[in-house]
Design brief:
- The complex is a heterodimer.
- Chain A is an all-alpha fold.
- Chain A has one domain: ABC transporter involved in vitamin B12 uptake, BtuC (Orthogonal Bundle), CATH 1.10.3470.
- Chain A has a two-stranded antiparallel ribbon with strand order 1-2.
- The longest helix of chain A is centred in the first third of the chain and has 27 residues.
- By secondary structure, chain B is of the alpha/beta class.
- Chain B has two domains: about 210 residues, Response regulator (Rossmann fold), CATH 3.40.50.2300; about 160 residues, Response regulator (Rossmann fold), CATH 3.40.50.2300.
- Chain B starts with a helix and ends in a 5-residue tail after the last helix.
- The chains are: A mainly alpha, B alpha/beta.
- At the A-B interface, helix 1, strand 2, helix 9 and helix 10 of A face helix 2, helix 7, helix 8 and helix 10 of B.
- Chain A: It is found in: Cell membrane.
- Chain A: This is Branched-chain amino acid ABC transporter permease.
């Protein structure tokens, strides 16, 4: 049971991170390599706010906003010029963003490990009789569920969500209807960055903050969206659960094979569903 | 006159053939991890090396010391590429890397190209063992001595049973294999063992297995981010207060700070420590604090000590012949090391030295908030066998 709860917390964190990537790919068609860098930036900014104020909750509220602002500026200044160009240019650009963000973080915070403590309310563990689970992991699992529910409601039940989905399906048509697609693109990229920043702050009390923390997690994040189907939020939920549980149960039984096992899940899914579980089939001319 | 010319020409040829012509500068190629998982160590090692150079007025053999700093990224391919380029630039000495695989790659290159290589932190035994060569020297600990320290730790601690968390790499598995073989003789059982990959993302499940295993001791052969993750997550469910955790390279001040309170009471070997009592170390620590405003880390101390030792050896030869430096360094004894006396074993170019065991405690005065407190010093002869 403890393994299941730990798997759920891993899945929750992966989902929050992957959701931003899915949104950006779904609407912009851009594979944002800098998503891991936004996650790292969120953790570092969260660290700074928590260090200044001593308040983790304030860090959790403000750091994602800061990262969203950075993402918005990056999109307006750079990515927005490349939507009509070849995909490899967008790819290179987001790779360049990683280098820029990494260097900025290195300049401001240095290369040493940093620490964020969980708030007092979430410290300690819950005893389930035969096993214990840390309160913070339960909180992470809850945050993931809340993020999934919130995204579903916004995308499926609100006018904004309808416009975003429509722009994702056919941005030219939406533009003809008088919607400012450019603004929607910028906003979605900013929200994607904000979600990455949110995941960074959530992860901060569980891991040491370091310059490569984004790189460590982003590979699993890409596995999640490929398994779930590029651009599908439902798929991201399922992909995150699959990867989270694989990592947790793999750790329990065969930790030395955890990485091959995780990639094995990807291969197995793609053999059965080449476009991912909820991926859309593209007609090739 | 003809005879004089012939003699002069012969002398010149002889000198040139030995590569012993004085250069305008002593060129060091330092390949350290300035990015990647050991970036914090690379910056600290750079600071330690700079201290060693500044201390001697920036000169050796009467010429300025120039350093080309390169980022090895703790990556063997990158390190090899940069090493090749530095050798093409005629460096007199290579220093690096921090990651053992990268150091092994660099060592093979140094051996082939006959350029001295100084390693001050990687611990894989093969570097100065089965894959060592005449040109590669290590001035810090190797896993062999850390294996002995681990066995000595269990001889004293005598827990009922041990749970081992070993990264899935050869050197760590070798260490655990030797320790595991010694445990039955000490009446210590093995409650469990896990081999997570290096850079493992999450240890919560393993922590839970340890908690349910009945073990009263954990051997964690982890370092850097892996060690921080493991102890932090063990602390989340209170495991650190229930079992004794030890690892030969588990923590130092930088990583203990990243763990926080959960690191208190964790035992670890330390390769160098700022609190080690000797005159040279006190002088070095005071100068380092004045320059950088903090105490030197393991990476800084080891880099300072190793480079000072090598440059003093070069100076003593009075020669520009790399072969003379290598001959002089191998078998040399360093009485003024900041870790007591060190001897460069002539059989494998591994520095024979003391071993230090510490426990994380609260710092006092100007010490870091969480600091390693030395609890045991192992003499060199307890950790090394004589050269054959």
């Amino acid at each position: 049971m403890s393994t299941f709860v730990i798997g759920l917390s891993l899945a929750a964190l992966l989902f929050i991170l992957a959701a931003g990537l899915v949104l950006v790919f779904g609407l912009l068609g851009v594979i944002n390599l800098a998503h891991g860098a936004f996650y790292m930036l969120g953790a570092y900014v969260g660290y700074q706010i928590a260090a200044w104020t001593g308040n983790f909750w304030l860090a959790l509220a403000l750091a994602p906003v800061f990262v969203a602002a950075v993402a918005w500026i990056a999109e307006r200044l750079t990515l927005s010029k490349l939507y009509d160009r070849e995909h490899y240019l967008q790819f290179l650009l987001t790779f360049g963003l990683i280098l820029v963000i990494n260097e900025l973080v290195r300049l401001v915070w240095g290369v040493g490990y940093l620490r964020v403590d969980a708030p007092v309310l979430l410290q300690g563990s819950v005893d389930f009789g035969t096993f214990q689970v840390s309160v913070y992991r339960l909180f992470v699992a809850f945050a993931g569920l809340a993020a999934a529910g919130g995204l579903y409601l916004v995308l499926e039940k609100t006018l904004i969500g309808t416009v975003v989905r429509a722009a994702s399906a056919n941005s030219a048509m939406v533009s003809c209807l008088g919607v400012n697609v450019r603004r929607i693109r910028s906003s979605v990229f900013a929200i994607g960055g904000g979600l990455a920043g949110f995941a960074g702050v959530i992860a901060a009390p569980m891991v040491p903050l370091s310059l490569d923390m984004g790189l460590i997690v982003i590979i699993d994040c890409f596995l999640v969206i490929i398994i779930g189907g590029m651009g599908s939020i439902r798929g991201a939920v399922l992909g995150a659960i699959l990867i989270g549980m694989t990592r947790a149960y793999g750790q329990n039984f065969i930790p030395q094979f955890i990485d091959p096992l995780t990639f094995g899940v990807l291969v197995a899914v793609l053999l059965v569903r080449p476009s991912g579980i909820f991926g859309r089939k593209e007609r090739m001319a | 006159m003809t005879n004089f010319k012939s003699v002069a020409l012969a002398a010149l040829m002889g000198v040139l053939s030995q590569g012993a012509v004085a250069d305008e500068a002593f060129h060091i190629g330092a390949i350290l991890p300035f990015s990647g998982p050991y970036a914090f160590g690379g910056e600290a090692a750079k600071a330690g090396m700079q201290m060693a150079i500044d201390e001697r007025g920036g000169k050796v053999l009467g010429v300025p010391i120039e350093v080309s700093w390169e980022d090895g990224e703790a990556n063997p391919q990158v390190t090899l590429k940069k090493g090749t380029r530095l050798i093409a630039d005629d460096v007199h000495l290579l220093v690096g890397e921090a990651s053992s695989p990268a150091t092994l790659a660099l060592s093979k290159l140094a051996g082939r190209r006959k350029v001295p290589l100084l390693n001050t932190i990687s611990a894989d035994e093969r570097i100065t063992g089965s894959e060592g060569n005449r040109y590669t020297f290590r001035t810090s600990n190797d896993f062999g001595m850390e294996t002995q320290m681990t066995i000595s730790y269990y001889e004293t601690a005598r827990p009922k049973s041990v749970y081992a968390v070993i990264p899935d790499v050869g050197a760590a598995r070798d260490l655990w294999g030797k320790v595991k073989d010694s445990l039955p003789g000490l009446g210590i059982g093995v409650a469990g063992e896990d081999y997570p990959p290096l850079g493992n993302k999450d240890y919560a499940v393993i922590v839970n297995k340890i908690a349910n295993s009945g073990a009263d001791s954990v051997l964690a052969v982890l370092a850097g981010g892996d060690a921080v993750n493991f102890i932090k997550q063990a602390g989340e469910v209170g495991l650190t207060g229930k079992v004794e955790i030890f690892g030969p390279t588990l923590l130092e001040e930088l990583t203990a700070a990243a763990v926080g309170e959960a690191s208190l009471g964790v035992f670890s070997g330390v390769r160098y420590h700022y609190s080690y009592k000797n005159e040279q170390n006190s002088k070095f620590v005071a100068a380092y604090k004045e320059k950088f405003g903090e105490v030197p880390s393991v990476f800084a101390g080891e880099a300072y000590d190793g480079l000072s030792w090598f440059l003093d050896t070069v100076e003593a030869t009075g020669s520009w012949d790399k072969e003379a430096w290598v001959d002089a360094f191998s078998g040399s004894t360093r009485d003024s090391s900041i870790e007591g006396v060190k001897t460069m074993r002539s059989c494998n170019n591994q520095a024979e030295q003391i071993g230090l065991m510490a426990v994380v405690g609260r710092g006092v005065g100007d010490q870091p908030e969480l600091t390693m407190q030395i609890v045991e010093e192992f003499p060199a002869d307890a950790l090394f066998t004589d050269c054959p």
